[in-house]
Amino acid sequence: MANVRERQRTQNLNDAFSALRKIIPTLPSDKLSKIQTLKLATRYIDFLYKVLNAGGVSAVANLAGEVVHGGDSDGDDSGKSGG
C-alpha cells in the first residue's frame, strides 16, 4: 500500500514539473532536469516581477538579457542527471 502511495506521489511530482516546464520559456530542444527547471523558474519569476516594476521598453529588454544570459551562482549546470 505504501508502495502505491509513493508511486502516486512521484507521478504527481513529475506531472507538476512537466506543467512547470511548459510554462517556462525555453528552446524546444532543451531537456531540463528538475533542478534546472526550478532555477530557471526562479529567474523567470524574478524577471516577471521586475517587468511589472520596470518603467519602459528598454528596461524590459535589459531584464530579458539578464534572464537569457544570467548565470547560476552555484555553478551547478553540470548536467541533466538531477532527475
Task: Describe what you observe in this structure.
One of its GO terms (molecular function) is RNA polymerase II transcription regulatory region sequence-specific DNA binding. Keywords: Developmental protein, Differentiation, DNA-binding, Nucleus, Transcription, Transcription regulation. One of its GO terms (biological process) is cell differentiation. With 83 residues, the chain is mainly α. The chain contains three helices and no strands. The chain has helices spanning 2-23, 34-53, 57-69. Helix 2 runs antiparallel to helix 3. The longest helix has 22 residues, at 2-23. It is elongated, with a radius of gyration of 16 Å.
Give a brief description.
It is built from 3 helices and no strands.
Give the uncertain stretches in residue-range form.
72-83
Helix/strand-derived category reads mainly alpha
In whole angstroms, the N-to-C terminal distance is 25 Å
- Global shape: elongated
Order of helices and strands: HHH
Strand residues, percent? under 5%
What's the gyration radius in Å?
16 Å
Tally of extended strands? 0
Main sheet makeup: none
Q: Total helix count?
A: 3
Helix content: 55-70%
Average pLDDT figure: 79
- State the oligomer: single chain
GO biological process, one term: cell differentiation
Function: Involved in the establishment and dorsoventral patterning of germ layers in the embryo.
Domain BHLH: 1-48
InterPro entries: bHLH_dom, E-box_TF_Regulators, HLH_DNA-bd_sf
